[in-house]
Amino acid sequence: MLTEQTGGVLARHRYRRIANLANLSTPIGLVVGLVGGARPSRGPRGLVLAGGYRLPVPDAVAFTIGNVVVARMPAQDLLHRPALLAHEERHAWQYVALGGPLYWPVYLLTTTWSWLFTGDRASHNLLERAAGLADGGYRERASRRQRRARRSRVGRRRGASDRRGVPPGQAR
């Protein structure tokens, strides 16, 4: 019987592989990985693991283009990080849903929104959230407005305790 445990590729994974080949994102991912010095190898569930990426951009431990998971670490090390691999696999499905290269402008738009809203490129990036923030090594950050309000509340509490008995509104 063909199962993931026996190394087989299930129909849904074949579908993803064919779709990402047809939308050209997987071939582009292979080229990007090779240009960055990565060595591609077969991965689980129809993914291609390209480990040893050396270019400085993007600033990530791993990133996915089509069915290719490009990583700075050796490809085999990805197999020992199942949460990260699951996160990257979800991105591979996003390439299918968005038709391949259309993924990039959507990712750029959602990254920009997240950065403007939180000061962090992933926290409110819809694609990263859908792929699982924690699995990708990201943490959720509050919006800039929420952080300002929290700092303001903390400042008011500190200010009140620093006055030592002086009623609010009166200077020392």
Largest sheet: 4 strands, mixed
Topology order in helix (H) and strand (E) letters: HHEEEEHHHHH
Strand content: 5-15%
Strand order of the largest sheet: 1-2-4-3
Q: Give the N-terminus to C-terminus distance in angstroms.
A: 81 Å
Shape: elongated
Mean pLDDT across all residues, rounded?
A: 88
Q: What structural category do the secondary elements indicate?
A: alpha+beta
Assembly state here? single chain
Q: Tally the structural domains.
A: 2
Radius of gyration: 22 Å
What is the number of helices? Answer: 7
Helix proportion range: 40-55%
Please tell me about this protein's structure.
The chain is of the alpha+beta class and 172 residues long. The protein has two domains: 1-98, no CATH class; 102-164, no CATH class. The protein has seven helices and four strands. It has a four-stranded mixed sheet. β1 and β2 form a beta hairpin. The mean pLDDT is 88.
